[in-house]
Amino acid sequence: MPRVARAIPPDARVTHWRAADGWAVRRFDRDGAGRGAILFQAGRADMFEKYLECFDHWHAAGWSVTAFDWRGQGGSGRLGADPHVGHCASFAPWIDDLADFWRDWRAERAGPAVLMGHSMGGYLALRAMVEGRVAPDAAVLVAPMLGLRSPVGARIGGLAARVIAAMGNPARAAWKGERPGAPDRRALLTGDSDRYDDEAWWFAHDPSLKLGPPSWAWLAQAFAGTAALRADPRLARVATPVLTLVADRDALVDPHAAIATTARLPDARTIRFPDAAHEILRERDAVRDRALAAIDTFLAERAPAA
């Protein structure tokens, strides 16, 4: 069967949701066969098209699947003057968007409601649960950004980001081109060249989706926000069952921070992938299929059909 990765399925809808302040947030919806509903949120600089193949897998199992591009990236506009820089002054508007969207979306759907988040999306999903802004029936965090990789360590890296952001325009790019000191971008993300090329295919067809490096303000917020979440005592009060998938070879986020942080949740399960890069759900079939099977098993156990 061909991969469903480079076309919006004909039974899906791409529309816009208006946030409380009027911001137009691009969304994807594909109705299922009554199994329940999944809201999947991607990572920094991503757009929902990167996960169409996974959406098709869950849809085939009966799930309705929804996703939206975070404001400032994908098809949801930009937060800085340079459209190629991933800028934000604060992560708080993203939490507000997620909470408001979840409220409206959940009210329209029957059956179990599941929140999934990859990378930055995983951080925002867990933070929203810790803050009591969303209460899914189950949650899946995929390579969640609960600590950032830094050659000088998270504490010094965060301090440096705050100082540099304050020294000039905080919306300027933290680096040019690929991440400094890192291997080629494909190696950072996945060992599957075809899935990696899906992203470039979408960029060629809609260049407005492409986003480049983060701003210094984003970096400062990411270091500070992940540190605060790791130390938050409310982690121990999250009632939602959580499955965390961790890539041991992750060179973008810290897998050990993810393991230690989610271990403090009352109802948590962690599965490690020693042969995976950051984008576990876009990895080689051997990795991706194991990840999808783990998610399917978790949802069957913790978010059974009504």
Automatic annotation (TrEMBL):
InterPro entries with a match to the protein in the record: AB_hydrolase_fold, Hydrolase_4, MAG_DAG_Lipase
Entries under Pfam families matching the protein: Hydrolase_4
Record domain Serine aminopeptidase S33: where: 35-285
SUPFAM superfamilies assigned: alpha/beta-Hydrolases
Highest taxon in the source lineage: Bacteria
Protein name (record): Lysophospholipase
Species for this entry: Sphingomonas adhaesiva
Biological classification of the source: Bacteria, Pseudomonadati, Pseudomonadota, Alphaproteobacteria, Sphingomonadales
